[in-house]
Automatic annotation (TrEMBL):
<dbReference type="InterPro" id="IPR043129">
    <property type="entry name" value="ATPase_NBD"/>
</dbReference>
<dbReference type="InterPro" id="IPR000600">
    <property type="entry name" value="ROK"/>
</dbReference>
<comment type="similarity">
    <text>Belongs to the ROK (NagC/XylR) family.</text>
</comment>
<protein>
    <recommendedName>
        <fullName>Glucokinase</fullName>
    </recommendedName>
</protein>
<dbReference type="Pfam" id="PF00480">
    <property type="entry name" value="ROK"/>
</dbReference>
């Protein structure tokens, strides 16, 4: 089986691995921290350095999972309005990487949340369902609308590009209601204290303010997802990302709130962890 080299880029890290897109096996993963606020030379250099360290028998095409906004078809950065990777705006990242990495003959780019969704759909929590909405809860809201193994990026069933971070709630971006930044701000508004999400989650059992923050945020997330659950009609909703690791809060708050309007949608937790985007990217390039 031909293994596919994958470069997975996040806001704070970059990882690389050889992946079997048929058997669903991720080889040894290389991972380094990444400063998304760094200069073009720093960011591209970091990606290229890690890619060069991945041993390949011969040069080949790579799959690259990138956060948006990004012009995936052309491989060019488009981070206007984002809080990361400003130095890659209008940069031909594919050409820059090929120039620096001898084992890279070209790149196929896809959205990191789409890679996560494809990986979970093929090998993980999306198994057995034809239509699945995958949502990552973390620094922002990532999403992938998967219908019979394909990512839906256009049409009136999904938000623009299939990206929930472009969706709105009560006239504001949905990420203003649910994201790491939004949770921290909700807690600060109630208590006057600046506390990270993990500490807020840990205080839910003992602190009414922390409990109220998560209840209100998950209520708004359910409201914000409602039009897309109605239009896309998924059989399952799979949640991943760093915030979803506190699954007890999802069970306590989100599942009952969503059940009031969509009792037939199964809510599942992602199963593959960091392997999901690697597997999804490799499967996408191989298909």
């Amino acid at each position: 089986m031909r293994y596919v080299p994958v470069l997975e880029v996040g806001g704070t890290h970059v990882a690389a691995a050889l992946v079997d897109p048929v058997g669903g096996v991720v080889g040894e993963r290389l991972r380094e921290s990444l400063d998304s606020a760094g200069s073009k030379e720093v960011v591209v250099g970091r990606l290229a350095d890690l890619a060069r360290r991945l041993p390949l028998p011969e040069p080949t095409r790579w799959a690259v999972a990138m956060p948006g906004p990004f012009d995936y078809a052309r491989g060019i950065g488009d981070f206007r309005g984002a809080d990361k990777f400003h130095s890659l705006e209008d940069v031909d990242l594919g050409a820059a990487l090929v120039e620096r990495v001898d084992t890279m003959t070209g790149c196929g780019f896809l959205n990191d949340a789409a890679a996560f969704g494809l990986g979970e759909a093929k090998f993980g929590a999306g198994g057995g369902a034809d239509r699945v909405l995958f949502v990552t809860l973390g620094t922002g809201l990532g999403s992938a609308f998967i219908d019979h193994g394909r990512v839906v990026e256009s049409g009136d069933r999904v938000p623009p590009h299939g990206w929930l971070f472009l969706a709105s709630l009560d006239g504001r971006p949905l990420e203003d209601a649910f994201s790491r930044r939004a949770l921290i701000e909700r807690y600060r508004a109630r208590t006057g204290r600046l506390v990270d999400v993990g500490d807020i989650a840990a205080a839910v059992e003992s602190e009414p303010d922390a409990r109220a923050v998560f209840f209100d945020a998950y209520r708004d997330l359910a409201r914000g997802l409602t039009p897309w659950l109605d239009s896309f009609a998924p059989e399952a909703l799979v949640l991943g990302g760093s915030i979803a690791r506190s699954w007890g809060l999802i069970d306590d708050f989100f599942v009952p709130l969503l059940g009031e309007s969509h009792p037939d949608v199964l809510v599942r937790g992602a199963e593959l962890g960091d392997d999901a985007p690697m597997l999804g990217a490799a499967h996408w390039l191989h298909a």
